[in-house]
Amino acid sequence: MVPPTCCVPLSRGSQIPVFRLKFAEMDLTNIKEQYHQLGPWLIKTTESHILNASGDERELFESKLDLPCTPEMLFSKNSLSLSLRQDEKEAKIEFLALDALKLVDKSKVHVQVPAAKQWSRPHFHKYSILNPFDWTFSTTYSGTTTGDWLVQSTLEGLDQKFIRSRDPILLFGSINLFEDELGDNGISLLNVKIRVMPTGFFVLQRFFLRVDGCLLRIWDTRLQWRLGDKYVLREVKRLDSEMWLPTMVGVQADDAEQLCKQVVEHRTEKLFPELL
Length: 276
What we know:
The chain is globular, with a radius of gyration of 20 Å. The protein has a domain at 23-148 and 155-210. It has helices at residues 56-63, 97-101, 123-130, 160-164, 253-256, and strands spanning 23-28, 31-38, 41-47, 73-74, 79-86, 89-96, 144-146, 149-153, 171-180, 186-197, 200-211, 215-226, 232-240, 262-273. It is built from 5 helices and 14 strands. The strands form 2 sheets. Strands 4-9-10-11-12-13-14-8 form an 8-stranded antiparallel beta sheet, with no helix packed on it. By secondary structure, it is mostly beta strands. Mean pLDDT is 87; it is low at 1-28. 11% of the residues lie in helices and 41% in strands.
């Protein structure tokens, strides 16, 4: 899927907005960072290597979770940050693997594979009996906010003209937070994408789940901000497949949305930061 672009008319009202742009990219010790200043927002993406399967770093990460098992591929240093700063005050929206995994259900198994399936990772069977948890790592995470924010429900939808326009891309990031192949029976993947344009930014976080023989799941969070807006518009839309079809085997995230017809949750809200 080509990530959505974002744009609004250059002038919102009668004046052309003035903003400062800045871009920097670093690649030090396997850490890649991108920065961009768009109006009041400092936007930062961080990408690094997969967390080792064992060792002190892995143990420290897992000690902050109450899960009997974590995804095979953890990108603990990967993140997206959208921050506002004024004097000593800061308001921020971040997307982080650790915080996403904290919202995985630790109390019960949500998806059962068909009895004929033979898991290639037997410890999943052990955990499902002795210590049930959602081994699909499905998460209702929609970002981490810090600082002072007012959240209001709204009927306002995303600006489709803004999302689909072809304005120049000032910064693009596609950042994996975690991934697991579910014992070769599918995939569980959390990814966040951002496009920064001269007139705003658009974020898509997608949790994609495919359990072959059982379920497809697309749980999306979208953020939209346009120059002149005093709020960030956040849409949360969670879709599951109604039934399993043979054609779903091997389906990837880009093609799964059209196959997921059951609406689990759909809400839109405005996030008003004190600093805007």
